[in-house]
Amino acid sequence: MCCCLGACYSPPKGAEVVKFDPAVQEQLSIDFKRAFIEYWAARARLDWGVIYSMEAPHVRWAYSQEKFMQFRAKAPKATSVVVKNLKKLTDNSYRISAELTLKDPVTGKEEVVFPEEIWVRINGKWWHVWRLGWIEKFV
């Protein structure tokens, strides 16, 4: 994983949970892969400050960091994220399909889910698009 992200790239703690299907990996830019790994490594560490900073701007419009962290405090930990498919929506956006394994913080039980995520690049920075219930119909 790290060899394809540049010689001076040091992956964050938790990056080992992120994998890319080989066919998908070749289609993604290095800057996108780094952002994706940083985001999901933060989910593996439950580092909500980093996660909040990587959510698209509409999240900060809707929630203060404190409210966001309260809302997400009991969220499950990501133990595995495998990017299975992608659709390039524009030069600055992707729809990612993944296999995500989450561990419940209370029971310890793991569950596998298959989310689709949208990522957008604005002014050179990649943002995770967390879909707010009321805004989802517009995304």
Count helical runs. 5
Q: In the CATH hierarchy, what is the architecture at level 2?
A: Roll
Structural class: alpha+beta
**Cα-based radius of gyration, to the nearest Å:** 15 Å
Largest sheet: 6 strands, mixed
**Head-to-tail CA distance between termini:** 30 Å
CATH class membership: Alpha Beta
Low-pLDDT segments? 134-139
What is the total tally of β strands? 6
The CATH topology annotation reads as Nuclear Transport Factor 2, Chain: A
Description:
- Mean pLDDT is about 85; it is low at about 135-139.
- The protein is α+β, with helices and mostly antiparallel strands and about 140 residues long.
- Strand 3 and strand 4 (about 110-115) form a beta hairpin.
- The chain has one domain: Nuclear Transport Factor 2, Chain: A.
- It has five helices and six strands, in the order E-H-H-H-H-H-E-E-E-E-E.
- Strands 1, 2, 3, 4, 5 and 6 form a six-stranded mixed sheet that branches.
- It is globular and about 35 Å long.
- The longest helix is centred in the first third of the chain and has 16 residues, at about 30-45.
Task: Kindly summarize this structure in a few lines.
The chain is 29% helix and 32% strand. The chain has 5 helices and 6 strands, in the order βαααααβββββ. Strand 5 and strand 6 form a beta hairpin.
